[in-house]
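Hello,

I think I submitted the PZK job twice by accident. Can you confirm which output corresponds to this input? Input:
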Amino acid sequence: MPDALHVGSGKVRELYALDSETLLLVATDRISTFDVVLPTEIPDKGRVLTGLSAFWFARTRHIVRNHFVALRDDGRSLECRRLEMLPVEIVVRGYLAGSGWTDYCATGAISGHRLPGGLRESERLPEPIVTPATKATEGHDVTITEDDAASLCGAKPYAKARDAALALYRFAVEHAEARGILLADTKFEFGIDEQGAVTLADEALTPDSSRFWPADGYAPGAPQPSFDKQYVRDWCLGTGWDRTAPGPELPPEVVAGTRARYVEAFERLTEVPFARYLAAPDVIL
Ligand code: PZK
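Support: Only one job matched these inputs. Its output is below.
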């Protein structure tokens, strides 16, 4: 990466500084499951995620401003404006899954939102809820109350980010459900731009930042299969893997099957053939 300074690494992404105002977010082909990055990559996974993020940034500008500046021709790198990041992640949940289901079972509430009794795992909530979390540098993010998030961000910036997150989630749920994908929950990050405006950042509404479920076969009362990762998870567990690092190397048929699921999610949501995206990424905008 000539002319760029590496400024951060995520499990499957890298962040570079291009100049004082601009960053480059690069999505690699690495895949994690059960919080372990596997030794085998999924070809084009990073391009699918970057293309999906760019698609949503282009189509949600009327809801809230975002950090998008440009897509690079490699299809996996997104130039963005450098922001002052808010110190919380904003999670929106429309269904009871993951830590939301765990918290509901233990307390009847999630992040201070008291919910009706008798809900089942993976059930649709009466209304989507916002459940902010602190960003853990290692280990899992910790869900906090909206009052705590408002204290950490400032009441006004938090309220703007929360309202934007809910509107983005509702917009994306409607778009995805019409194309056979349930968007169970999703995580957003926001920052403050040079004009002081709350701005959507990071990746948005990708399978790595959200739970995508196939609408076909949705059945509350149990965990739902992940649209993108279920094949990899099932295969890994079938090897007898104990979910500790290092994970197993994936055979070619599992790599190909998983890549096909990512590409299918991309094509269903964007209605752009993935080959057209690879040839000229800007078609997604
Ligand atoms: C920013 N991250 C997460 C960490 C990654 C990504 N527009 C922005 N301005 C300032 N900071 C960030 C962003 C964005 N997006 C994002 N950390 C800081 C992160 C590691 C690797 F790819």
